[in-house]
Amino acid sequence: MSTDMAKILQDYLAASNSHDWNKISPFFTDDCVYEDIAVGKVCHGKQELKAYFDGMLVWSADFRIESKSLFATGNGIACEWVMTGTHTGTGKKYSIRGVSVSELREGKISRNTDYWNMSAFLQQIGWLPGAPANWIGRLMMRLMMKH
Fold first, then answer.
1. Does the CA dihedral 21-26-29-30 come out positive or negative?
2. Residue 78 to residues 26, 91, 115: CA-CA distances in angstroms?
3. Residue 29 near residue 108, CB atoms below 8 Å
4. pTM of the prediction?
5. What are the boundaries of each domain within the chain?
6. Is the distance from CB of 88 to CB of 61 less than 8 angstroms?
7. Topology given in CATH for the domain delimited by 3-145
8. What is the pLDDT of residues 80-126, one digit of tens each?
9. What separation, in Å, do the N-terminal and C-terminal C-alpha atoms of the chain show?
10. Nearest to 97 by CA among 116, 114, 70
């Protein structure tokens, strides 16, 4: 992996963890597309991305993102991460695993897609009953075995 790409991503994560939009904004192109699959949100451009980021701070003012692994090729980066924090509404701690896939253009993020498990997050903050993934997983396995 290019050390430049790794450095860009590490610097971006440090900026994100600062919660300072003025430090985060320079990492994105003006026409960036930022998609959060779990939330079902697509942001077009920095103005929409800032509104999304501001919303994240409302529901978790202390979130932190830690990179676990990075992969890069050409103009793309994939980063496996863990986001931790406290949910503002419930006061409960959470730890969510996810992956971001980003495209870079001229050293800036032009497209980013985040993939993470909303059910795990909702369980951890107490908005879903515990361990539904276990019984759903067992049900899915039974259904697959019948075919």
1. positive
2. 19, 31, 11
3. yes
4. 0.85
5. 3-145
6. yes
7. Nuclear Transport Factor 2; Chain: A, (3.10.450)
8. 999 999 999 999 999 999 999 999 999 999 999 999 999 999 999 99
9. 42
10. 116
